[in-house]
Write a structure and sequence with these properties.
Low-confidence stretches of chain B: 1-6
Distance between the termini of chain A: 53 Å
Number of helices of chain B: 7
Oligomer: heterodimer
Largest sheet of chain B: 4 strands, mixed
Number of helices of chain A: 19
Strand order of the largest sheet of chain B: 2-1-3-4
CATH architecture of the largest domain in chain A: 3-Layer(aba) Sandwich
Largest interface: A-B, 15 and 15 residues
CATH superfamily of the largest domain in chain B: Glutaredoxin
Distance between the termini of chain B: 13 Å
Strand content of chain A: 5-15%
Bound molecules: iron/sulfur cluster, FE2/S2 (inorganic) cluster
CATH class of the largest domain in chain B: Alpha Beta
Number of strands of chain A: 17
Chain lengths: ~575, ~160
């Protein structure tokens, strides 16, 4: 690699040619303040907070976008730079509501942090705040355009990463706003509710619909038996909300914390993930046998489901009919568990802790009432659970490690890995292999389907019968596979698709920040959690075995069809009005 | 008298897009042509363009609302563009605009109730020598005064 020499604030560094000034400064141990810049996204150079002085250049340069050249001399803290930087931030603040105390991002806001870091104590410009209405049209997200600083990170994520493109800058000048086409609300367009926009928003301009109040109310209601399920990905991310470093497995503390909040039973979505594998594995084998629509695609990820419903409705027959683990859990909590515990299902209140905003949409889908009640009553994202734990003064890292309750809290390592991209596939292969061959797998680790690469492939030999599989995450990647299927060029039998980059560990409801680096740490933690489980194959889950014996009968049986499987809805790409939201 | 616009037969939107090889890079040109054909950029037109170029409609709408020459709402029969660039500004464009607003009863960007006129602002029309200036349709009018503006409007009655 060709290196160039740059002098920054008097310090000389060697950096690869084409590095940005920002990267060079970091290499020199100098932190240039930034705002619109995000390390995982294309540089937009919108905010001009990162300006620096380059000797020989008349104008100030944006460090995040400007490449270095050999011999360049840069000043990041000259009076001129400091002045310009402050003016840029003060201008942003002059049309910002600044109601930090009541803001969802208070103390977790990049604008607020920056204003503090630059020591801004007074505003020299007249206040002119946009009076745009909040958009509460979707079940998953709230948009508050009055707080938007027009960094365009959400646009980048929604278009480039997710390939959805629900938001874009509209109008120009002072009237510029980030909005859906046609001046309508987000609920009126084909937004998949993934919340990836909320994950990158530096301020409180896009965030999750809050379910904490209804959960507090249920917990305080003596007539309600409140049960909670925790998605696989929460155990490796909730720690970050509570001040721990990314990548810690905190399963035991999570259970203890939920008991302290007052939940009557602490159960695990990993249980119903194991169950999903049994149902979906048998569905795959049945499809292979009967020569039904191939490839079969997983159906655990509600953002992905909404995406295919809007954009590829012709391919809906490829979806597994299995409900997601969250919804299987809810349906069983209000039937099987209610019966077993002798509780009227009308009094059972099911709360899910999910890494995902789209789960809020999913639990409200009109078909998700197979127990005779809403199968899931409330969905808290990791961020909301963090807020509840902090409000309750829970010292998370000091909690003892506790165990989930039986029976819906019993699970295997196969359930855990649902939280990472490739996990559902790996869990399914562990079971399908043993069911088909009758042999014990020599190694449980299908490493080819792990990791952050966009599209992963593998071929498994089921004793003479070869099964070709693919795994993808992020809808932009998914689209490539869907186009292959459409063109008749996909020779796979089974495909795993997760809506969010990295899978659920990178879900739109996860702690902020969620960077590529943090995603990888959470993935590593997921596989550590798997390796630490005494049982690692779904079909060995004793609670699932008992469930079939006592209640369901057999996989794909009548009861399963009634409670655990579902159908999908063709949606318009340009909905007139989204009547179902 | 206003100059007659060209008598070339109108192309279809599909033709226009094909001429640009469905290249999203040509979005602005396509939008301009589409407006020429349909008078304004309706939701249906923008959705068709989005589909043909295989890009999200939000991007089409974003570009359509960024450029003042593009309209996402139906326009009046005659489009009045008042120059707001400095030479016209200095020579009284503000009074011209005020007169138009008063007589027509609309603000820039709006269309009169009888759908006869749409009032718009534009940058330099290239006739600074006769500032202040405006265009109605393809016809340029210069050396404007409030009185003259009223006279001109009458000729469109
Ligand atoms: S977005 Fe940030 S700066 Fe704005 S009100 Fe919220 S916390 Fe304060
Ligand atoms: S939720 Fe997902 S699809 Fe909807 S606007 Fe945000 S990033 Fe785009
Ligand atoms: S909504 Fe948030 S992410 Fe999107 S442009 Fe505004 S501030 Fe940036
Ligand atoms: S951080 Fe460089 S322009 Fe915003
Ligand atoms: S400035 Fe108005 S025509 Fe040139």
């Amino acid at each position: 690699m060709e290196m160039v020499k740059v002098t920054i604030d008097g310090r000389e560094v060697q950096v690869p040619k084409n590095s940005t000034i920002l990267a060079a400064a970091r290499a020199a141990g100098i932190e240039v303040p930034t705002l619109c810049y995000n390390e995982d996204l294309d540089v937009k150079g919108m905010c001009r907070v990162c300006v620096v002085e380059v000797e020989g250049s008349r104008t100030l340069q944006t460090a995040c976008s400007q490449p270095v050249s050999d011999g360049m001399v840069v000043h990041t803290n000259s009076p001129r730079v400091r002045q310009a930087r402050r003016v840029n931030v003060e201008l942003l603040l002059s049309n910002h509501p600044q109601d930090c105390l009541g803001c969802v991002r208070n103390q977790r806001c990049e604008l607020q942090t920056l204003a503090d870091q630059l020591g801004i104590r007074e505003l020299r410009f007249p206040r002119q705040v946009k009076s745009e209405q909040k958009d509460i049209s979707t079940p998953a997200l709230v948009r508050d355009p009055s707080k938007c600083i027009l960094c365009r990170r959400c646009v980048e994520v929604c278009h480039q990463v997710q390939g959805v493109g629900a938001l874009y800058p509209v109008n120009r000048g002072f009237d510029t706003t980030i909005a859906p086409a046609g001046g309508v609300d987000l609920g009126d367009v084909a937004c998949v509710q993934c919340g990836q926009c909320s994950l990158v928003c530096p301020v409180g301009a896009i965030y999750e619909q809050d379910h904490t109040e209804r959960v507090w109310a249920a917990l305080a209601n003596p007539d309600k038996h409140v049960v909670v399920q925790t998605a696989p990905a929460i155990r490796v991310s909730i720690g970050e909300e509570m001040g721990l470093e990314p990548g810690e497995v905190t399963t035991g503390q999570l259970v203890a914390a939920l008991r302290r909040l007052g939940f009557d039973r602490v159960f695990d979505t990993d249980f119903s993930a194991d169950l999903t594998i049994i149902e979906e594995g048998h569905e795959l084998l049945k499809r292979l046998e009967n020569g039904e629509t191939m490839p079969m695609i997983t159906s655990c990820s509600p953002g992905w489901i909404k995406y295919i419903e809007h954009f590829y409705p012709d391919l809906l027959p490829h979806l597994s009919t299995c409900k997601s683990p969250q919804q299987m859990f809810g349906a069983l909590a209000k039937t099987y568990y209610a019966e077993k515990a002798g509780i009227d299902p009308a009094n059972i209140y099911v709360v899910s802790i999910m890494p995902c905003t789209a789960k809020k949409f999913e639990c409200g889908r009109p078909e998700m009432i197979d127990s005779g009640y809403p199968d899931v009553d409330a969905v808290l994202t990791t961020r909301e659970l963090g807020r509840m734990l902090r409000e309750n003064g829970i010292k998370f890292s000091e909690l003892p490690e506790e165990e989930y309750d039986a029976p819906l809290g019993i699970s295997t390592g196969a359930g855990v890995i649902f939280g990472a991209t490739g996990g559902v596939m790996e869990a399914a292969l562990r079971t399908v292999y043993e069911v088909v061959t009758g042999e014990t797998l020599p190694s449980l680790d299908f490493t080819a389907v792990r990791g952050l690469e966009g599209i992963k492939e593998a071929e498994v030999d089921l004793k003479g019968k070869k099964v070709k599989v693919a795994v993808t995450h992020g809808l932009g990647n998914a689209r490539k596979l869907l186009d292959l299927i459409k063109a008749g060029k996909a020779d796979y039998q089974f495909i795993e698709i997760m809506c969010c980059p990295g899978g659920c560990i990178g879900g739109g409801g996860q702690p902020i920040p969620t960077t590529k680096e943090i995603r990888q740490k959470r993935i590593d933690a997921i596989y550590r959690a798997d390796a630490g489980m005494p049982l690692r194959k779904s079909h060995e889950n004793p609670a699932v075995q008992t469930l079939y014996k006592e209640f369901l009968g057999e996989p794909l049986g009548e009861k399963s069809h009634e409670l655990l499987h579902t159908q999908y809805t063709k949606r318009e790409k340009y909905p007139e009005k989204a009547a179902d939201m | 008298m206003p100059v007659k616009s060209s008598t070339e037969p109108k192309k279809s939107l599909r033709q226009v897009i094909a001429e640009h090889n469905s290249d999203p890079g040509a979005l602005l040109d396509i939008l301009r042509d589409a407006q020429e054909i349909h008078g304004y950029l309706s939701a249906a037109v923008m959705e068709e363009i989005a589909d043909e170029l295989d890009i999200p409609v939000s991007r089409v709408y974003g570009v359509a609302t960024f450029y003042t020459l593009l309209a996402t709402k139906p326009k009046g029969e005659h489009i009045i563009r008042v120059c707001e660039s400095p030479p016209c500004h200095i020579r009284g464009a503000v009074n011209i605009l005020e007169t138009l607003k008063e007589v027509l009863g609309v603000n820039p960007g709006e269309t009169t109730e009888d759908k006869k006129f749409t009032l718009e602002l534009t940058s330099c029309l290239g006739v600074c020598g006769v500032a202040p200036a405006m265009m109605i349709g393809d016809q340029v009018y210069g050396n404007l005064t409030p009185e003259r503006v009223k006279e001109i409007l009458k000729t469109y009655a």
